[in-house]
Amino acid sequence: MLMNDVTAAWARSRVLVVDDQADIARMLTAALASQGYEVQVVSDGRAALARFTQWRPGLVMTDLHLPVLDGLALCRTIRTHSLVPIIVVSAKSEEAAKVEAFDSGADDYVTTPFGTEELLARVRATLRRAGNGLPHESFEAGDFRVDMEARRVHVRAVAVRLTPKEFDLFVYLARHPNHVLSHRTLLAAVWGSHAHPEYLRIYIGQLRKKLELMPSNPRYLLTEPCVGYTFRPRG
To answer: What is the CB-side half-sphere exposure of residue 148 using CA atoms within 13 A?
Structure first.
């Protein structure tokens, strides 16, 4: 194993838990430590940013309701300079809360109370997707150019700013042009196997609003009824 691979594996074993509820923090710490993860806990968003910069964890798990700086602001701030995976752990189960968390940069969302085995499976899946991420080279697909470093999409030479999850979903579609991709395939690739099917419909709708000339009559992002979606790079 090369040195940079060793360093990456070592970093991925570090988990920063951000929660001001001591009982939840203890549960998360115990579950993670039982599987060999190194865990540090902080109780507010501002302290989390300082610890993140100093400690360089491979995964962040955060509540939404935090003192000083809330979980959404924490996700957005981390995303300005890092692609480290983030799992939100929250008692809020409303779809709107989950969508807002994903739009702020979260990679997964776990509602409390949670089962330990499911939680650990989500951690493994999130780290696996991060470790086996898509190549970072920019590429072109028909009318689109994808800037992987800036995480920006250009359609017909016009730059379009996408949220983190919109970008991840579009990149996966763009790397599989003219193929019918099932709902299950897309959900697993972008959100993980436990994702709610409604996420996909919402995010495809958002992509159409930003990328299509006529979102109600799409040329690029086509629905395959009862199956999934197809990306046509030239419309």
So the answer is: 12
8 A C-beta contact, residue 190 and residue 169 = yes
Q: Do 177 and 122 belong to one domain?
A: no
CA Rg, the chain, in Å? 18
Count how many domains the chain has. Answer: 2
Domain boundary among 131, 162, 197: 131
Is residue 142 within 8 Å of residue 157, measured between CB atoms? no
H or E segment at 210? helix 198-211
Dmax (CA) for the chain in angstroms is 53
Residues 173 and 205 in one domain: yes
d(CA 37, CA 15): 7
On the question of a cis peptide bond just before residue 113, with omega within 30 degrees of 0, the verdict is yes
Place of tokens 């968390």: 101
User: The pTM is what?
Assistant: 0.67
Are both 123 and 145 inside the same structural domain? no
pLDDT, tens digit only, all 235 positions of the chain: 333 433 344 445 899 999 999 999 999 999 999 888 999 999 999 999 999 999 989 999 999 999 999 999 999 999 888 888 999 999 999 988 998 999 899 999 999 998 999 999 989 888 887 764 445 578 999 999 998 878 889 999 899 989 888 998 999 899 899 999 999 889 888 887 667 888 899 999 999 999 999 999 999 999 999 999 999 999 8
Q: Is residue 84 within 8 Å of 71, Cβ to Cβ?
A: no
